[in-house]
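fwd from M.: "can u put these together and see what the complex looks like"

so here's what she sent:
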Amino acid sequence: MVLQMTGIRKVFPGVVALDGVDFRLLPGEIHALMGENGAGKSTLIKVLTGVYDIDGGEIELAGERVRFTGPLQAQQAGISTVYQEVNLCPNLSVAENIFIGREPRRFGRIQWSEMRRRADKSLARLDLDIDVSAQLDSYSLAIQQMVAIARATDIGNTRVLILDEPTSSLDASEVEQLFAVMRRLKENGTAILFVSHFLDQVYEIADRMTVLRNGGLIGEYRTAELPQMQLVSKMIGKELEALEQIEEEVREAPRRDRTIIEAKGLGRTGSIAPFDLTIHAGEVVGLAGLLGSGRTELARLLFGADRPDSGDLAVDGQPVKFHSPRDAMTRGIAFSSENRRTEGIIGELTVRENIILALQAARGWTRPIPRRRQDELVDRYVQALQIRPADPERLVRDLSGGNQQKVLLARWLITEPRLLIIDEPTRGIDVGAKAEIQRLVAQLADGGMAVLFVSAELEEVLRLSHKIEVLRDRRLVEELENGDDVDADRIMHTIASGATP
Amino acid sequence: MNLTALLRHRLFWPIAVLVVLLASNLVFSNNFFTITLQDGHLYGSLIDILRRSAPLVLVALGMTLVISTGGIDLSVGSVMAISGALACLLIGDLSNPDSVGPVLLVVGAAIALCLVFGLWNGFLVAVLGIQPIIATLILMVAGRGVAQLITDGQILNVHSAPYRVVGAGYFLAVPVSFLIAAAAVALTVAVTRRTALGLLLESVGGSPTASRLAGIRARRITIMVYVFAAAFAGVAGLIYSSDVSSADSNAAGNLIELNAILAVVIGGTALTGGRFSIAGSVLGAVIITTLDITAVSVGVPVETTLLFKAVVVIILCLAQSATFRAKVFGRFSAKRTVPA
Amino acid sequence: MIDVTSPPRTPAKKTARRVYRPNTKHIPVLATLALLIVMYSVGVYNYDGFGDTQVILNVFVDNAFLLVVAVGMTFVILTGGIDLSVGAVIALTTTVAATLLNAGWPAGVVLPVALLIGTVLGFGMGAVIHFFKVEPFIATLAGMFLARGLSLLINRNSIPITNDFWTQMAQKRFRFDDGVFISLNVVIAVVVVVIAAVVLAWTRFGRNVYAIGGNADSALLMGLPVGRTRIAVYTLSGFCASLGGVLYSFYTSSGYSLHGQGLELDAIAAVVIGGVLLTGGSGYVLGTVLGVLVLGLIQTIITFQGDLNSWWTRIVVGILLFAFIVLQRLVTRKAK
């Protein structure tokens, strides 16, 4: 037993985040920590890495009782962590990012050449050959993630490696590469704690799993002995019919008699190659492709968040040029960003203020929405989307990820858009909320709204879309009419080969 | 309202400090709260506080709006100096400095120049995307040079009855400078809270990217607040120079940017932007002025007000620091941390 | 193998290293250097005697204290913070030193006490900033008021210093063959600069300073001693301010509570003109040295010109600030 946590309790003012949670890690295993948002996964990890102190319980590392006062102590004790968002310093070189805090030194003087040499070696182990003296932010997010992992695994005495959602910014081949590294570390006896929202990945790599719900422990299981459906029901605490229901619904093809938006040769150098795309009223168009394939970039061009440098755009048959999101909004286009926290919600404002924001912006600051009208609108959408807690005066940052996403949707829905562009609305939110959002999208389209749905999850795209646009390497490579003959394999094939079979 | 809720109210600490300050004045001078009517003017220490708060209140108002967008304006002191300098220079050139019309024109010209400076700050911040503290540092450094250029390095004295009214006159027994400040407060409240401007400002301050994607024209709003701040600073400069009947490029608005920022922070608006409180900032400005006046009435050397200020700043900042409260008062902690 | 071509500007390995392309981080410093050369050439071309070695050495002699203060400020700004208290600390240091010396205390005691003042104050401000999460701007503003207020409380007038040791230090000159000289202050300032440069480039503390300026949250999660480093940086700046105060008291042979007014602005301006990013994480001590020289050279040129008034210094510094800030902006925007 390398790590044993017993009866862990952590209380925040007003909230019990962890209540008597036990957790153990064996050497040489990959252990998945499962639970919905708000189950206490992040808190448990932060306790383990010394970011939070505990209010009760015991932590034993290799048989010794420990109590960390900070991340440094945890690291020194042999617990390394790679976080969901790359937590490195963008202004330092790759080599420094791997070694800062434990640079090779002689007489207190950092030995730069030795450091670069070691960095090369440590990245080579991950099959990565890049200039380690270049500044970190000159590389893509995926590479930065690999650098973070190199940093975590390079610590000599690493006994426990925590990977918190490490795969969310990686494409399939990068995930495979990461898994290979994880297996190698496991063989060397490192215990790995793995957190991921992708169930398939968990089943592929994890030996055992611990399930949390609402800050409490549900149980510890062998992966092989716990079927996926059972796991999901343990995570959300009820049998999950919601997801399947949508799947069974037959999606009728829209009439396609009214074109909302039409892009011809629209493109932007360095972000997306020129593409053609037409979206009709009542149509759900899915954008499929790997991360970095140009999904978000395409969406942003349609919304005027970025400016195209080639091609034409027409709304309702009239040529338009969007200089800012505001221009697109006046044409009835709405866009909900994939970066919920940085580009979506405004944390310190209330739910009400967040919801009315876009509508208010469209009206301009001189014409405030009367308070009564605000309450009316907000109440309606808080109920319709089941935003919890149903208190419009709560600060949005206190809501869970799924509820924040619903607030964002509400913000756009009250502007009554004709085209709703939603980028990864279901990423990082719990299964229940996911189903609700998917159902909502289907309803909206049935009501005549056009929806451009961007998602990394093929199943989701397949389930909802009438038409699927497949992207690869920042290029729109194929348009598929969704039907019985189209399935995940078919799309994957296009993504992988880039050509029509 | 129970005690905890009272302690948590964001104006509790500022009000408490103000009350203590005023009360301590009473100990040293019995007639501190007495207000008398002499020659049709209200007199008394409290009136004095209101009158002398005016410039700082004006500057703090503009600063509040700027800070709510996540910015800061260090140039207000320099703008004050420039506006006073220009007004005094122009009035000195008037053939009849005692006629109202030309003086009003001069005042208008001085404020117009300030609007240009505000546009400049706003341009640097919103269009060139320069960090506000640096962008306004430019005008802070260069502005006093410009003011000295206008006055040719001299202290310009003016003798103009209408101009004197701005900073030292009375209207219906009430000091005009106080009325100007009160009008500015009313204007600011109306412009931010009776329209959606306040919400949009707080949104831009909370997250500029998210605000842009929500369709807010952040650039326009940002420029607007810097123009506001400069205009208010310009008026404050006029009040100051009118009160002393001269333009002193070094003394006018000296350290006022720091006092104004302090007032805003005391009032509970975070320097990081977002939520702002106009009432809080006004209260903060009054506290700082009271502090200066208290020092005099308590009989300590005027210079040591700095020490007072330091102590008050430290106490207030600690009282407002959620971490400090959590550490010292434990259960009174105001900010709730919610786990991710 | 990860596709390293996805960000188009990813440097191609090895080959790129041989071609000299100025690192974007170096552009501001190079620009400052170019400006300095231009200013100097203009001075030499226009004014008689400007080319004397002593003229350039006098820039150092007259600005040694500013250089020391600006070095401390560089550390603070590299972490993304700011220290408004430095000017007031100079005043406090000179006042305390002068008062104690006049009271008959030996110089050997006064010197350490004087140096301790800023150090302790800096430590206090750092602690408040770190432990109570008070904004650096506000915490050091309080420090500024405190230091200035204390020095005014001690003495409102200028106090002459007549102590032998102090006079000796003030008059100490290092002369070179051709009659040119530098003062002791310059030697001390140069030593401070060299130590600071070495610390920033080759020690863990130095790299932690950069890391915090890059992303403080990440630095914490990477297990770096963020709190300790941050407190240390303000302590260091406080020490540098005190040392600057001591040099200032050598330079002026007096202690005065109004010394160093607005000096924090000069220090910040020097650091910015020297190419240090005010948001933190990028810049060099060498840049700060160049920044101080630019400020000093402006003064010198205005003195040589003779018919320019002193307020032109402020306007020129403002214009330079603008130029360098826009340059920084362009450079960082290109890098993004």
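replying to her w this: The first helix of chain B runs from residue 3 to 8.
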